[in-house]
Write a structure and sequence with these properties.
This protein has about 325 residues and is an all-beta fold. It has a single domain (about 1-325), classed as membrane protein fhac: a member of the omp85/tpsb transporter family (Porin), CATH 2.40.160. The chain is built from one helix and 15 strands. The longest helix is centred in the middle third of the chain and has 9 residues, at about 120-130.
């Protein structure tokens, strides 16, 4: 759902999205995300809330882990990330929030249960003294956001730059360790033609553990952004480590004059390292590429149904369905 809560000349478009998904892998995924601008952009409220009974392949840490090392892990997840921003200048916001990420009922998934003891999750958990069947990170965050995009759902011009510092505390709302994380998100959009039917979009993400020891499933990983749209060509958590940098460029074209149909092509790459690996940031890369179709669902908000197919290295590939653009 998209709406403008105020004068359209001075207020960004707001959006709320939620749903329930059941996959062929036996996963049940539910979530509710919001990005709400108050009249005249005085306040901005951002939320990422999930409740899932799901599974994920796990690998060793770093950017050079082979596909054959995959071990499937099942778990239940509760995620509550809420941030309130206050406008301090045109397009500039300062915010603070609370962050809870809880994984419970962690157990062997598809595959041979006898190999569970060899799982990268089990080895990391034992090394750092975490509970093997439940782990929680809870804490607070401070954020800085600069946003000049013409439309947060499907931007055609402008910039977004954000930086967030999160501190998680042992014992706070069930937290299992004290650790810190810094993340940055940069996006830019450039029209190639006057009619706006040809466009380039650029995206950079950085996610860095700056202190302490996070639980395994809270380490920076591919597709770890709020909407899970980064690193198309790879699955969630395919590469995981203590430091992650990600870049993407996407070419967008509207095929019909009324905007009903469009397509995109994209290139991306991820580099990641780990304190417990010989890999270091920029030593190895996981490139991805792909293309997709766009079907306009709402002309006023420019919301698209997105159908993408991406390829990565070592035979990785995937089909991606979503509402609104990857970034």
């Amino acid at each position: 759902m998209a709406f403008i809560d105020g004068d359209a000349r001075t207020t960004h478009i707001s959006s709320m999205s939620g749903g329930l998904k059941v996959s062929q892998k036996g996963q049940t995924l539910s979530g509710f995300k919001l990005a709400i601008f108050a009249p005249d952009d005085r306040w901005f409220i951002q939320g990422d809330n999930r409740l899932s009974w799901t599974s994920q392949n796990t690998y060793g840490l770093g950017g050079d882990t082979p596909p054959a090392d995959a071990e499937n892990l099942k778990y239940d997840q509760l995620r509550l990330y809420e941030t309130a921003y206050r406008s301090v200048a045109p397009g500039l916001f300062i915010g603070g929030g609370i962050n809870i990420n809880r994984h419970t009922n962690v157990r062997p998934g598809a595959g041979d249960p006898s190999t569970f003891d060899q799982d990268a999750y089990v080895a990391y958990t034992a090394q750092h003294g975490f509970n093997i069947d439940r782990q929680t990170s809870s804490g607070t965050s401070v954020s800085l956001l600069f946003d000049t995009r013409d439309n947060a759902i499907n931007a055609r011009r402008g910039w977004l730059a954000s930086a967030t510092y999160r501190t998680f505390f042992n014992g706070f709302l069930g937290g299992d360790s004290t650790w810190q994380e810094a993340s940055v998100d940069l996006r830019s959009y450039r029209a190639l033609t006057r009619d706006g039917r040809h466009e380039l979009a650029f995206w950079f993400l950085g996610d860095f553990v700056t202190g302490g020891t996070p639980p395994y499933l809270d380490l920076p990983a591919t597709a770890g952004d709020s909407y899970g749209r980064s690193a198309r060509g790879y699955g969630e958590g395919r590469y995981r480590g203590n430091q992650l940098m990600y870049g993407e460029v996407e070419y967008r074209q509207t095929l019909t004059r009324n905007g009903l149909l469009g397509f995109v092509t994209f290139l991306n790459t991820t580099t990641i390292d780990s304190d417990s690996s010989t890999d270091r940031l920029l030593d190895t890369f996981a490139p991805g590429a792909g293309a997709g179709l766009r079907f306009l669902l709402n002309k006023k908000s420019r919301t698209n149904l997105c159908v993408d197919y991406g390829w990565g290295k070592q035979g990785s590939h995937g089909l991606y369905l979503a509402i609104q653009e990857a970034f």
